[in-house]
Design a protein that fits this description.
Layout: E1 4-18, H1 25-32, E2 40-54, E3 58-62, H2 69-76, E4 84-89, E5 93-96, H3 109-119, H4 124-138, H5 153-166, E6 172-176, H6 184-199, E7 203-207, H7 211-217, E8 220-225, E9 228-233, H8 235-257, E10 279-289, E11 296-308, E12 316-323, E13 328-333, E14 349-358, E15 363-373, E16 378-391
Parallel strand pairs: 3-7, 3-8, 5-6, 6-7
Antiparallel strand pairs: 1-2, 1-4, 8-9, 10-11, 11-14, 12-13, 12-15, 15-16
Helix pairs in contact: 3-4, 3-5, 4-5, 7-8
């Protein structure tokens, strides 16, 4: 099309993975004369990919790890050549892929700026003209004459990102997960840079796992899974489908968990199940009730079934909820809620139900559950990531929570 900056036409990419190992120089010469001795497995990294990106469009590419996102981005950057199909790029491309590649730890920060700029295709004059701006953006004025090996990892990433962004006078930018660079203050700079790209109507291809950023910045997005395109469309729709893939996976995982020995459970965060064994959490479920409509509607119903393995006079049951990034969002227990549980005898089971208002935005959430005793000083059983639930919304925002908000306006007559 006339206004398309990128046209990807039926692109496939295969990699050959050799099976035969070469362990010595002798093996090398032996294999030169062996017929059919070396075998390969073909990995299909991309299969029949096709789409167009218009001039000034902010285009997202999302998918799980290993789906083919980075391979596709490297083909657009010209790092890889497609096995089949073609790619037309209508302008100068600057890729933000693997920031810091080409940096040399034995050189100073200043020397690395000129080295990295040269690798990106810029002249010494062009780099000199923007050097001060690069250093100022990276906030590394006092460190530019130090060797890079003495920089912290965060400082190195800031310098790499600054070189890429300050020199990026291009028609098309290819960006791979740069929102995670640096500390909180530097991340704000990254967000401001993204906003400016939007204002300047730059053509941007953006690969990320952060669906909030997809909704906020992208005009359209592409979902890729197992090397193939699942869908292309509005960012909110694609983000919902991305989350749903994890929801389906979590549902299958939860069914498998019920068949496993719960005492040896390890959560997705790596935390092991633990406790003194005086009680056991038998099961935990999370039911989403009417949470697809307006803000604040509905609730999440969390139910924990507990079995006492000894007599407990004052059991205390609690839960907490965290997001896909493992950040704890909320939690409480029966003692904090002034809901004392009656004494239970060994072998007795009981249920505790929690109803949490519909404050969650779209996404995947995990529930930790705990049974404690002796004024919550001792833990009988803590089960990390005991269950999970998924939120879908017809209307959503890029923010973590979605509380009920009332709006009122009043037109003042002149």
């Amino acid at each position: 099309m006339k206004d398309s900056m990128i046209i990807v036409d039926n692109v496939s990419k295969n990699f050959k993975l050799p099976h035969q190992k070469i362990g010595s120089v002798k093996n090398i010469f032996t294999n030169l004369f062996s017929l059919g001795g070396r075998t390969y497995e073909v990995q299909h990294a991309l299969k029949d990919i096709g789409f167009e990106v218009k001039k000034g469009e902010f285009f997202g590419i999302v998918g799980r790890n290993g789906s083919g996102k980075s391979t596709l981005l490297k083909i657009l950057a010209g790092i890889y050549q497609p096995t089949k199909g073609s790619v037309h790029v209508g302008g100068r491309v600057v890729p933000f892929i693997e920031l810091g590649v080409g940096f040399n730890g034995e050189l100073t920060g200043k020397e690395n700026v000129f080295l990295n700029g040269a690798l990106m295709g810029f002249s010494e004059k062009e780099i000199t003209a923007k050097y001060n701006n690069i250093v100022e953006f990276a906030e590394l004025e006092r460190f530019m004459d130090q060797k890079l090996k003495n920089y912290s990892s965060g400082m190195q990433v800031r310098l790499a990102f600054s070189v890429a962004t300050r020199l990026a006078e291009s028609d098309i930018l290819l960006i791979d997960e740069v929102l995670a660079v640096g500390d909180a203050a530097f991340q704000r700079k990254c967000f401001m840079y993204f906003k400016q790209l939007k204002l300047d109507r730059k053509t941007v291809i953006f690969v990320t796992h952060e669906m909030g950023a997809v909704r906020e910045y992208c005009d359209r997005a592409l979902l890729i899974e197992k090397a193939e395109i699942v869908d292309i469309g509005k960012p909110g729709v694609i983000a919902s489908k991305y989350h749903k893939m994890f929801a389906d996976e979590s549902k299958n995982d939860n069914q498998t968990k019920e068949k496993q020995n719960k005492s040896s459970k390890v959560g997705i965060s790596g935390e092991e199940r633990w406790g003194d064994g005086k009680a056991q959490i038998v099961s935990v479920s999370a039911k989403v009730d009417n949470l697809s409509g307006e803000d604040g509607e509905g609730e999440v119903i969390i139910t924990a079934r507990v079995k006492a393995l000894t007599d407990l006079e004052k059991p205390i049951v609690g839960f907490s909820i965290k997001n896909l990034q493992l950040a704890q969002l909320m939690g409480t227990n029966t003692m904090r809620k002034k809901h004392p549980l009656p004494p239970v005898r060994s072998g007795q089971e009981f249920d505790v139900e929690w109803r949490v208002e519909g404050m969650f935005n779209e996404g995947t959430y995990y529930v930790d559950s705990t049974i404690a005793h002796d004024q919550a000083v001792l833990v009988a059983d803590r089960w990390p990531d005991a269950t999970s639930f998924q939120i879908f919304r017809e209307d959503n925002t890029p923010y973590q929570v979605y509380p009920a908000i009332k709006v009122k306006s009043n037109i003042i007559k002149p």
